[in-house]
Every structure is written in structure tokens, then in C-alpha cells.
Automatic annotation (TrEMBL):
Disulfide links within the chain: 133-136
Gene Ontology process terms (BP): response to reactive oxygen species
Keywords (A to Z) from UniProt: Disulfide bond, FAD, Flavoprotein, NAD, NADP, Oxidoreductase, Redox-active center
Listed GO CC annotations: cytosol; protein-containing complex
Superkingdom as given in the UniProt entry: Bacteria
Cofactor, free-text remark: Binds 1 FAD per subunit.
Descriptive protein name: Thioredoxin reductase
Annotated organism of origin: Novosphingobium hassiacum
Entry's family note: Belongs to the class-II pyridine nucleotide-disulfide oxidoreductase family.
The protein's assembly and partners: Homodimer.
Cofactor(s) needed by this chain: FAD
Binding site for FAD: 3-18, 266-276
Length: 307
């Protein structure tokens, strides 16, 4: 069995693996796709001390850094269940292929995924004008026209954030009213370069083959369709944590995120969590790495107290 088994090979899992392995304890990482969301990212400009990098390059560097240490990497493996430790003191992770892996401590770092609109053109123009992270990609649209899809807290926050950078923001909400907190709505409505459209379904992302040029939405009250010309579309209809396989086993927030304390401890002793899958706010690479490092150290600390 492992002393530390990390489930998830994104920035959080890679950081946890390096911190654990550097303590000389038996460390394993299992991941559906080593690299995680970073693999789907183009330009990265906020990975502090690295002015610019690209997702696939950073993912390869994560893997080669982990491989500097004696870490067992089990790539292309999907965890389907966590069975908390019984009398033998070993937690069990069951895999889709029928196998299972045991460990004294577990670090859950299975990340999250952005909910997509499912509109034609969305996939085609992903990273070519269709974006999901305003903290990451907002500055790329400086002086340009953008839309934010979604009028919940994250959509309205994104629209306020973008309005300070871009030329114009059109906020499109499906419901007949915004769902964000009133204080955020008031702030948004006070901004001069914002248009709010409610009862609207985005039906298509338009582009010229290389980049986004607009979108089409349907007014749900009249069924009329309208075209908005723009350069960027931020989809903010939810970030879904990859915890479906943990429901009923570990404490999750109402949004399905793993509840963690300041040390990354979960509701199960010896099981820690880090990164986008947890309740820790702001889903970013540097934050996931910091949290993963903390979880690695916490797992080590837990082990030395077990005697
Ligand atoms: P993830 O990167 O999501 O990794 C999760 C890992 O868990 C993966 O290896 C996955 O395969 C694995 N996994 C999931 N479920 C299972 C399972 N059941 N069994 C086994 N393995 C599983 N952040 C920035 O800081 N700057 C940026 O510029 C930036 N741009 C982004 C652009 C895009 C398009 C996207 C999608 C995200 C971007 N982000 C950016 C956010 C950043 O990628 C995430 O915050 C970060 O990757 C989170 O790391 P993580 O390790 O917590 O999770």
C-alpha cells in the first residue's frame, strides 16, 4: 500500500505528489488525464514568475517534475469510489477497471469542469474567443466587445470585472431576472458600458473560422432571434466539481465541493483534498498548487502522528 495516494493529476495533485515524495514516503498519483484542465488551456499569463506559458507545455513540465521523484504515476485511471479505512487503517480507492489501490492517506484533487452552453460554435471557438475564466483571459479582450453568459454571482462578478477592462459587456441571462446578489446587480447596473439582456437563450456562437465574431440569442418571450457582434464570450453558467463519485462518502458543500479546513483536511481522518475540487475560493493554477502542497504536508504530518 501507499503512504500517500493522490487522486487527480492536475496542478494540485502534482504539487501534492512532489511535496509528499520529498518527505521520502511512498507516494502514488492516479489520474484520468495527467495535467488536468491545464491541457485545455492555451496562453497562461498569471502563473507567477512565468510571464507566459502554454497549457500543454506546463502540463508536460508538471509531469517531468513529478517524475524527478519516486512517484508511482497511474495515468488513464478513473476512481469510482472511496472506501474509508477500517481496522487495517488503509483507505481504498476503487477504479473503473475493477482494480483497487490502498493507502494510509489519500489526497483528493480531481478538479472541476466548466459547464458548457452546448451551443453550436462553442467548442469550435474555445480559446478563440470563447472563454471560461475572466481572471485568466479577461485582459486578452482589452478594448474589445464581449458577452458574459449567465447572470448568477459568477456571471455578474465576471461582467463587473470585464467592464473595467473591455470596451463593452453584454450580459445574457436565461431566466427573466438576474440571480446574483443585489449588491452585485446594483454595481453592474451602475456601469456605463454594460447591457443586460434577460430571458435570452444563446443559440449559436458565430465566427470567421479563426475567431469569434458574434453570437445569436433567442428572446424567450417573443422567440425572435438577435445577433450581437463581439470578439469574446465568457461562459459563466457554473463550475462543476468532479465529486460525483464521492457523494455520500465525504462532506460536500451544497455545490458539491469537498469541504476542507485550512490544512486541507476533509471530514474523513487521513483523507485530504486540494484544488478546484474543494471549497477553497478562486479556481486558479497557483492556488491549486499552493493547496496541493499544503495537502501533501498535511498528509505527512498526519502519518508521523500515527506512530
Ligand atoms: P484539474 O486541473 O481539474 O485536475 C484534475 C485532475 O483529476 C485531472 O488529472 C483529472 O483527469 C483527474 N480526475 C478527475 N476525476 C477523476 C477521477 N474520478 N479519477 C481519477 N482522476 C480524476 N488557471 C490559471 O491560473 N490561469 C489560466 O490562465 C487558466 N486558464 C484556464 C483556461 C481554461 C480553458 C480552463 C478550463 C481553466 C483555466 N484555468 C486557469 C484554471 C486552472 O486550469 C485550474 O484552476 C487548475 O487546473 C485546477 O487544478 P486542479 O489540480 O485542482 O484540477
Amino acid at each position: 500500500p501507499f503512504e500517500v495516494l493522490i487522486v487527480g493529476g492536475g496542478p494540485a495533485g502534482a504539487a501534492a505528489a512532489i511535496y509528499a515524495a520529498r518527505k521520502g514516503i511512498r507516494t502514488g498519483v492516479l489520474a484520468e488525464r495527467f495535467g488536468g484542465q491545464v491541457l485545455d488551456t492555451m496562453g497562461i499569463e498569471n502563473f507567477i514568475s512565468v510571464q507566459y506559458t502554454e497549457g500543454p507545455k506546463l502540463a508536460a513540465q508538471l509531469e517531468s517534475h513529478v517524475k524527478e521523484y519516486e512517484v508511482d504515476i497511474m495515468n488513464l485511471q478513473t476512481a469510482t469510489a472511496l472506501v474509508p479505512a477500517g481496522a487495517d487503517g488503509l483507505h481504498e480507492i476503487r477504479l473503473e477497471n475493477g482494480a483497487s489501490v490502498k493507502s494510509k492517506t489519500v489526497i483528493l484533487s480531481t478538479g472541476a469542469r466548466w459547464r458548457q452552453m452546448g451551443a453550436p460554435g462553442e467548442d469550435e471557438y474555445r480559446n478563440k474567443g470563447v472563454a471560461y475564466c475572466p481572471h485568466c483571459d479577461g485582459p486578452l479582450f482589452k478594448g474589445k466587445r464581449t458577452a458574459v453568459i449567465g447572470g448568477g454571482n459568477s456571471g455578474v462578478e465576471a461582467a463587473i470585472d470585464l467592464a473595467g477592462i473591455v470596451a463593452h459587456v453584454t450580459l445574457i441571462e436565461f431566466d427573466n431576472q438576474l440571480r446574483a446578489d443585489a449588491v452585485l446587480q446594483n454595481k453592474l447596473r451602475s456601469m456605463p458600458n454594460v447591457t443586460i439582456i434577460t430571458s435570452a437563450l444563446t443559440t449559436q456562437v458565430l465566427g470567421d473560422g479563426a475567431k469569434v465574431t458574434g453570437l445569436i440569442y433567442k428572446d424567450r418571450e417573443t422567440d425572435a432571434t438577435h445577433t450581437v457582434e463581439l470578439e469574446g464570450i465568457f461562459v459563466q453558467i457554473g463550475l462543476v466539481p468532479n465529486t460525483e463519485w464521492l457523494k455520500g462518502t465525504i462532506d460536500l458543500s451544497p455545490r458539491g465541493e469537498i469541504e476542507v479546513d485550512a490544512r486541507g483536511a476533509t471530514s474523513i481522518p487521513g483523507v485530504f483534498a486540494a484544488g478546484d475540487v474543494t471549497t477553497v475560493p478562486y479556481k486558479q493554477i497557483v492556488i491549486a498548487m499552493g493547496e496541493g502542497s499544503k495537502a501533501g504536508l498535511s498528509a505527512f504530518d498526519y502519518l508521523i502522528r500515527q506512530g
